[in-house]
Amino acid sequence: MPVEWQPVQQSRTHELVLRSIEERVIAGELRAGDRLPPERELAPVLGVSRSALREALRVLETIGVLVAQPGRGPDAGARIVRNPDDALGRLLRLHFALGSYSLHDVLEARVVLERSSFEAAACHAPVEDLDEAEELVAGMAEPGITVSTFNDLDTRFHVLIARSSGNALTSTLTSAVRESVRPLILRALEAAEDWPATARALNAEHRTLLTLVREGSGPEAADLVEWHIRGFHGTLVKGPDAP
Amino acid sequence: MPVEWQPVQQSRTHELVLRSIEERVIAGELRAGDRLPPERELAPVLGVSRSALREALRVLETIGVLVAQPGRGPDAGARIVRNPDDALGRLLRLHFALGSYSLHDVLEARVVLERSSFEAAACHAPVEDLDEAEELVAGMAEPGITVSTFNDLDTRFHVLIARSSGNALTSTLTSAVRESVRPLILRALEAAEDWPATARALNAEHRTLLTLVREGSGPEAADLVEWHIRGFHGTLVKGPDAP
DNA sequence: ATGCGGTTGAGGTCCGACCACATGCTCGGT
DNA sequence: ACCGAGCATGTGGTCGGACCTCAACCGCAT
């Protein structure tokens, strides 16, 4: 009485290679900073062609686990690294574009993640991060600021707070989720009726948020950022979205 | 007075291909279900070799945006799909193994995400999902259950609730985060002093959680799941972790 | 000692060939 | 007319070799 019939997946070679390297990483035999043997050596050792190996390496590269550099120095070759942010960002961006996730889903995720970020940041954010955030807010207060620059600084503001919360994982997730809706937000801002007023209003919230974080008022900051995000997304769905 | 000097990034060919396809996806020209031209046609059109194209396709495949099947039917060839879960799972698993994220980070992320999941599930989870969850809980109550099976069912329980919350994004994230610590949890459970008692205690919490969700008590369910997860991770850090 | 060019080894790219597989069609037998 | 065996075709998957670019290194000439 088998519970379920699962399709027996024949493995393509590069998947085998991938699994092999993956296992080494999970077993702790490969750690950040380690170097892999040159492709031309590793391929015959694994018993596959260089193409197959290269495809596996490429996958690891897009996951943010590997970087490769030509040349000869100590930095050359394939090295294990830890750079999840880009990979996660691209992943969510594409899937959001494909409609795997609705705008509502992203909104809720942002609220949940950023509430947590701001609450944690209020507890233990380094002052230098807050000073940097201050500069970003100041930058956004610039009169005559373009939509694009504002969007840029806004993203960096939210991501910075997430990073300063001390939690690398939620920081990465926050960043990726924020990135995934960036083009949408950009379009919405461009369609705003009174752009300077909108910018001023949004930035007033940023300033208040920063103040709350500085004085350690975690819950208040969390509530405000939820309101901030929800308000923002509210203008999104009412934006240039009537098919 | 240039604002910043940015390193001019020479792009590797497959990155260009990737960007090109990515743009089509984001622009909405490529949608889920669409098929790409055969590799042998597409490569010369893009002006690159098949190898370079294949590397780009491989990347898209690991992101969960593409699947490829040989053969000739209507299902053959490269098709755009939406399957973010595996990709995200592998990504977090590897990065957790590499130490990009501490156990504490994962704990906090789980708490935040699953609180949200359970709260939302209490509001609008389909009854069939809850019935399925009921079965999982019953399965975990089985006397003499092995650690491995329990871990399996536990994972499915949490992921199921996340999915039934109606938010695809937080569901994916929850699932991926839970998966990333699965081997760790497995080891911790195996090291438990009184395994049957531990299993009973954990499952009593599951049952209560399910009841709370059924009766729509969102906040209570959220609080309990936070306690549930924190307690669990508490045994983790005190577990077989003394080097 | 210094500066410059060749050498070397790394990844990046390309090409051409073959393999495995599933579909779809043709052809022959019934 | 029907039906099954078997070949043709088109797809991704794999392989091996060749060449390119790049960066460090070595050694010669200044």
UniProtKB/TrEMBL annotation, chains A, B:
Keyword terms: DNA-binding, Transcription, Transcription regulation
TM spans (from-to): none
Domain HTH gntR-type intervals: 11-83
Keyword Cell membrane set for record: no
SUPFAM superfamilies, A to Z: GntR ligand-binding domain-like (SSF48008), Winged helix' DNA-binding domain (SSF46785)
Pfam annotation, one family: FCD
CDD domains (alphabetical): WHTH_GntR
Protein name: FadR family transcriptional regulator
Higher taxonomy: Bacteria, Bacillati, Actinomycetota, Actinomycetes, Kitasatosporales
